[in-house]
Amino acid sequence: GFDIRAYRDAAEQRAYTRTQTPGPASQDGPDVQQAVTQAIAGLSERKVQFTYTDVLARTVGILPPEAGVIERARAGIDEAISREQLIPLDREKGMFTSGIHVLDELSVRALSRDIMKQNRVTVHPEKSVPRTAGYSDAVSVLAQDRPSLAIVSGQGGAAGQRERVAELAMMAREQGREVQIIAADRRSQMNLKQDERLSGELITGRRQLQEGMAFTPGSTVIVDQGEKLSLKETLTLLDGAARHNVQVLITDSGQRTGTGSALMAMKYAGVNTYRWQGGEQRPATIISEPDRNVRYDRLAGDFAASVKAGEESVAQVSGVREQAILTQAIRSELKTQGVLGHPEVTMTALSPVWLDSRSRYLRDMYRPGMVMEQWNPETRSHDRYVIDRVTAQSHSLTLRDAQGETQVVRISSLDSSWSLFRPEKMPVADGERLRVTGKIPGLRVSGGDRLQVASVSEDAMTVVVPGR
After folding, report:
1. Buried b (16+ CB within 10 A) or exposed e, 308-332
2. Which CATH superfamily, name and number, covers 102-275?
């Protein structure tokens, strides 16, 4: 079988040999290899496979735009291929994966097998908390099998996910074990905390896996929406579970998967999947209609009716162009049914642009006219700027503040205190429902809050915050 420790030792030995017996000095210089490494790492966080063009474009975007930069970047990529930092997936070397992914996937499989072989799930009758309801079929089997590592799959919205996690926590408590719950994101964390059955449980976010999570020996860790885990996060989870003899139960709600599909790697390692079918089943209606306009009109009518009835509804369609067409159809129907007022005012809104530790250093992320904010710890407020110019030669941004003063900031100096926003025009009418995506100076609202527009004019907008 695959020996992960031997693989790591061999990789470390190859790296040591290269540092002790370096090849001839490359005219590319160290900056090129660093740029290629950053490009590969950035792509690996978002994709399992990527093209040669992806790597080249990202590398060139990091390097200063000097003469011969493309040739230098190509040479750096060739060197990355030779040292297995990039692994070709086809004979023409047009599609790649990274050595990072291969090692992480093999590590997930190896750790999964180690946990299933070595970890023991114990029962402590003296600490048992009696269950308050019956178990679903899947959880009943789980309670009997007591697997050290398992995947619990099942469809369902927020209520179904909450029910699934609560049932797993109740099972672990009945067997006398401590429970730790890892939520997929902040929204899921708040959703889980609303359940009275989970009011006394420790519920943390996925970020805790990156910052160093403390595992309670002999406990049960329940991961909500585990399909969103990246390979790196899964490695941290499994490594902690292996070292502290922790039972890991990962729920799979079948939504968008994280980079690398860690659950698939675990299934390949032999981890069992339990099919959960509890919770409230929502009815679904499928309407077959070849004419797009008729489909969208029907969807718009149903959506408007649900909004008028006070229900929380979401309309979804793929593609920016299709989304714009559907949005227009829905707004027209909402006006027809009197949910929205007829006069519209066009406003400028700021949509956040996601920046991580790698993408914030890419010059292509920034465009003139975009808005940047920097957190000022002294005034405990955000300083806002507009990007006036993006200078490729110096890899820098020229920022303009509210007073018209400009300053030049090198892209390489940007850190997590900076946020980036894209200005967008949007129509607003009386009765509009809005969601806040960031803190608004002077208003007591925060990201995620919902607003209802009471009235809007060219000069002002009056909003109501539900619940206040």
Report:
1. eeeeeeeeeeeeeeeeeebbebbbe
2. P-loop containing nucleotide triphosphate hydrolases (3.40.50.300)
